[in-house]
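Narrative of accomplishments. A recurring question from our advisory board has been how the design workflow behaves on a single, concrete structure rather than in aggregate. To address it, we present the structure tokens for one chain from the evaluation set, followed by the sequence designed for it. No filtering or post-editing was applied between the two.
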């Protein structure tokens, strides 16, 4: 699952967590292994463009998941994929007022 909420964590990262009995939940402790992947969240203004956006990303070998109730696309950009063309696509969509996006875990350089 691609992280929708957590920052600085990417798909494929292996983390250490500690169970808190009082809260009855796990809490992040540290990284065990960093995947090298980048996570981007796209906040889409018009849900009619979600599928075409996901298709474009899929062609570029990026997996994505959608949280429809908030029009968010979570994107996994594998470490072996060039980020430059994807960043240009994201910036263009932002300039065209299609979405805003967040590099929630940026491991790629560009």
């Amino acid at each position: 699952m691609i992280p929708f909420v957590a920052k600085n964590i990417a798909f494929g990262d292996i983390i250490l967590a500690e169970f808190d009995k009082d809260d009855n939940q796990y809490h992040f402790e540290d990284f065990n292994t960093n995947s090298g992947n980048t996570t981007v969240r796209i906040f889409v203004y018009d849900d009619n463009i979600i599928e075409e956006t996901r298709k474009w990303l899929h062609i570029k070998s990026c997996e994505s998941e959608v949280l429809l109730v908030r029009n968010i696309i979570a994107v996994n950009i594998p470490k072996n994929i060039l980020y430059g063309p994807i960043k240009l696509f994201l910036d263009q969509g932002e300039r065209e007022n299609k979405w805003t996006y967040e590099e929630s875990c940026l491991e790629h350089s560009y």
